[in-house]
């Protein structure tokens, strides 16, 4: 009987660990009616809205290092500015006639700014995973709509058929793609996403050689997003990787470091 209980406990523990590691890939599957058009099909011509992300840009330049580490204590000192930016974002509710570039920039900045806000409300904290409901609680306000971080990622951004968003949104952890120290804008979004993809794939978050690769778990959790066009994961990564893998390269995935991306 004792062996049976121990085995059951191990099984439950393993299941919980698996669920925890995959939480952000499935949390918040509800867009709350906010627009999430297919990027491939939406034209941005004559649809400029002109959301002003300059305040967020200033905060990022002041408190995010080039390597992506974040000065959360500095953000706390500038709490008034962050609150002002979040209030502005919440007042600018996206509409169906917004262009895809404007929507991408808005939602990426919205996700990242509210993630920083979440950390500040719980700071000091060792990991975002120590915060209950980090991706499932509806902490983001857009107009009269309340939505979770998981909802923004999984029910809006991922629906826009733009896999590079996974290199742009930041989950406040060491293994995440780095938080860019400038705001995303509609005018520069494509170039910014290209840089984010290249920077992440060629960083120490991945170990790539001709015959094999140890990749970030992001490529495991969201593999279907990177292979939607029918190409393999290797083909997708080779678009950006300085080292080109063979088509039959052996792929494995690295453990994810969820420790806070706080500056020392």
Sum up the structure in keywords.
264 residues; mainly alpha; two-stranded antiparallel sheet; globular; disordered N terminus
Explained architecture:
The protein has one domain. The strands form 2 sheets. A 3-stranded mixed β-sheet has the order 3-4-5. A two-stranded antiparallel ribbon has the order 1-2. A hairpin with a 3-residue loop joins strand 3 and strand 4. With 264 residues, the chain is mainly alpha-helical. It is 41% helix and 6% strand. Helix 5 packs antiparallel against helix 6 (149-157).
Q: Count of helices? A: 10
Instruction: Please give the share of residues in helix.
Output: 40-55%
C-alpha geometry: globular
Strand order of the largest sheet: 3-4-5
Oligomer: single chain
Estimated share of beta-strand residues: 5-15%
| Pattern of helices and strands | HHHHHEEHHEEHHHE
Report the end-to-end length measured between terminal Cα atoms: 49 Å
Q: Give the C-alpha Rg.
A: 19 Å
Q: Count all strands and give the number.
A: 5
Based on secondary structure, the structural category is mainly alpha
């Amino acid at each position: 009987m004792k062996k049976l209980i121990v085995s059951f406990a191990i099984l439950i523990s393993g299941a919980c660990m698996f669920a925890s590691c995959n939480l952000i890939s499935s949390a918040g599957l509800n867009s709350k009616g906010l627009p999430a058009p297919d990027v491939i099909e939406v034209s941005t011509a004559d649809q400029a809205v002109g959301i002003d992300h300059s305040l967020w840009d200033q905060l990022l330049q002041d408190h995010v290092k080039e390597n992506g580490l974040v000065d959360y204590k500095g953000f706390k000192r500038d709490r008034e500015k962050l609150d002002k930016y979040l209030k502005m974002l919440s007042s600018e509710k996206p509409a169906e006639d917004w262009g895809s570039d404007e929507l991408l920039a808005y939602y990426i900045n919205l996700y990242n700014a509210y993630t920083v806000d979440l950390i500040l409300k719980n700071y000091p904290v060792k990991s975002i995973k120590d915060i209950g409901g980090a991706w499932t609680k509806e902490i983001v306000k857009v107009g009269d709509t309340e939505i979770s971080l998981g909802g923004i990622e999984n029910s809006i951004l991922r629906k826009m058929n733009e896999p590079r968003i996974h290199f742009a949104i930041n989950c406040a952890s060491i293994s995440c793609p780095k938080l860019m120290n400038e705001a995303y804008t509609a005018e520069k979004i494509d170039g910014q996403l290209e840089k984010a993809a290249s920077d992440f794939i060629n960083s120490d978050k991945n170990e790539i050689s001709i015959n094999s690769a140890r990749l970030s778990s992001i490529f495991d959790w969201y593999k279907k997003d990177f292979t939607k066009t029918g190409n393999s994961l290797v083909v997708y990564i080779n678009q950006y990787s300085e080292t080109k893998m063979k088509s039959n390269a052996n792929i494995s995935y690295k453990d994810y470091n969820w420790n806070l991306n706080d500056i020392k």
